[in-house]
Amino acid sequence: MTGDKNLTDSRRRTLLARHGEALDLFTDRVHAIRPGQWDDPTPCTEWTVRDLVNHLAVEQLWVPPMLEGATIEEVGDGFEGDRLGDDPVDTWDRAADAAREAFHARGALDRTVNLSYGPSTAHSYCAQMISDLVVHAWDLSRAIGADEHPSKALVDFTRHEVEPYADDLSASGLFAAPVQPPPGADSWQRLLARLGRQP
Questions:
Q1: CA 135 to each of CA 43, 47, 109, 112, 187: distance values in angstroms, whole numbers, following the listed order
Q2: Beta strand pairing status for 112-115 and 118-121?
Q3: Domain-by-domain residue ranges, the chain?
């Protein structure tokens, strides 16, 4: 999926729909965080709830400059550190809105973005962002005790996007080593296990 160079109208509509749904999913979980949960641990062993939300907020903050053609060197360290401030929910909302608007801009998905590993199509970048939102929404859900299962549309999209390179993610150090899925695991639980999460 990430290797596609040509973007059909159907694919464009699907990407924007799934991206909006993934943002809404994570937003719903951010709004469900109770005041005493921000320092709680998450399945991402080095991250608290606040760390996790900050990571995703920063990813959304990167979207507008990336789609405008900026390089990582040009952005520099502007988004490093804790960007959540005194009102992390509001910060998340504004970052998510900015990313949504940037991907919906006319011609945005047809552009080329300069990612850490080199140039990429913007629609591949969007697909990666969707999958990251969905998987990390599970992490946040597990941490705060919320519903852990995304919609079938998001599960199917994420599996289709991630499975071709899932093995490389563990080798990269971005995800933990795969674990054994539970007996009778559904497709979502099997993907989580492959990404080093214990469903």
A1: 11, 15, 22, 25, 13
A2: antiparallel
A3: 9-149
Query: Judging by beta carbons within 10 Å of its beta carbon (0-12, 13-18, 19+), is residue 3 exposed, middle or buried?
Result: exposed
Instruction: Give the model confidence (pLDDT) of 33-67 as tens digits.
Output: 999 999 999 999 899 999 999 999 999 999 999 99
Distance of CA 168 to the CA centre of its chain: 17
On average, the pLDDT of the chain sits at 92
- For residue 29, give Cα distances in angstroms to 112, 120, 130, 186: 31, 30, 15, 22
Sequence letter at residue 43:
P
Q: With 0-12 CB in 10 A as exposed, 13-18 as middle and 19+ as buried, what is 133?
A: buried
Residue 158 CA to residue 177 CA, distance in Å, equals: 18
Q: Residue 126 in contact with residue 83, Cβ under 8 Å?
A: no
187: tokens are 């497709």
Q: Is the pLDDT of residue 5 over 80?
A: no
Q: For the structural domain made of 9-149, what CATH number should be given?
A: 1.20.120.450
